[in-house]
Amino acid sequence: MTRYRNGALFLALAAAWGAAFMAIKAGLGEPGAPGPFFETPVLFAAVRYDVAGLLMLGYAALVLDDPLPRTRAEVAEVAVAATFMIAAYHAFLFVGELNTTSAAAATIVSLSPVLTTAVARGLLPSERLDLVGVVGLLLGLVGAVIIADPFGQANLLSENVVGKLFVFAATLAFAFGSVLTRRIDSGLNVEAMEAWAMLGGAFLMHVVSLALGEPASSVELTTEALLALGYLSLVASALGFLVYFDLLERLGPVEINLVSYVAPVFAALTGYLFLREAIDATTVVGFFVIVVGFVLLKREAIRAEVRSARGRPVEGD
C-alpha cells in the first residue's frame, strides 16, 4: 500500500503545484482581460507568502522544539533562501506570467533541476560535468529557447519573449538559491527554514513592491482574488510543502525532482479548463527537450534509483 500512497501524493503534489501557475495567471490576468492583481504582481506574490509563511511557522512551532534560527549559519541559510528561492523567484515569476501562459511558465520552471545541476558544478568544486552532462545542460537551455520562441516573433523583445525571460530569470534565481543553501547546510530543520524564508521573502517583496510604486489601492478583493490567494497560500504553498517534505524523505531528491516534469501537464490542463489558454507546439517540444537534458544530466542518479527500487522489497503489498 505504501507505493500507492506515495504515487497518489506525488500526483497530488504535481497537480497542486501545476495548478498554481493557473491560479497566478487568474489573479494577474492579461492586457486584454486584467485580473485583480494585474497592476501589482509583486504585491500579489508578497501577500501569498505573508499567509503561507505564517501557516508554515505555526506548523514548525508545533512539530519542532525550537523553530528559531540561532547560529550565524542558520541565519545565513534563511537569508539566502528568502532572497533567492522566495523573493527573487516569485517576483520574477509573477511579473513574467503577465505575458505568458500557465503551461509555458511551468515548462520553463521545469528547467530548475537542470540549472541547479549546472550552478552546483560551478559553485561546488567537488562536482564536475562530463561530456554527456554538458550535452544534457545544453539541451535543457535549448528547450528553454524553443519555448521562448524569440525567432518566431516580429520583435525579439516582444512582451511574450520578455515575459518568458522573466520566468527563466526566476528559475535561475531558484537554482542559485538551492545550491547556496546546500553549500551552507546549517542543519536547521527544513520546516523552520521554509517558514522563516517565506516570511523573509514576503518582507523583501513588499519592499520591492513599494519601490516599484505598485498601487495597492488598485487591488479589489473580489471572489476571484480571494480564491487565487487562498489556493496559492493554503494549497500550493502550505499543504504543498508539507507533502513535499514527506515525499522527499520517502522517495529521495531524484524522484521528487520529477514533480517538475509532471507539474506542467497540470498547468496546461488547468490553464485550458479555467482560462481557455491554448497549448502551442513550441511549449510541448521545448518541454520534451528539457526532459531529455535532465535525463542525461541525472543519468547516474536515475540509474542508481532504478537499481535501488528493483532490489527494494515493496512495503505493504
Automatic annotation (TrEMBL):
UniProt superkingdom: Archaea
Residues covered by the EamA domain: 9-147, 163-297
Pfam families linked: EamA
Transmembrane intervals: 45-64, 76-96, 102-124, 131-149, 161-181, 193-213, 225-244, 256-275, 281-297
Gene3D superfamilies: 1.10.3730.20
Membrane topology designation: Multi-pass membrane protein
Record localization: Membrane
Cross-referenced InterPro entries: AA-Vitamin_Transporters, EamA_dom, EmrE-like
GO (cellular component) term, any one: membrane
UniProt keyword terms in alphabetical order: Membrane, Transmembrane, Transmembrane helix
Coarse class of the protein's main subcellular location: membrane
Name under which the protein is recorded: DMT family transporter
Organism for this UniProt entry: Halomarina rubra
Taxonomic classification: Archaea, Methanobacteriati, Methanobacteriota, Stenosarchaea group, Halobacteria
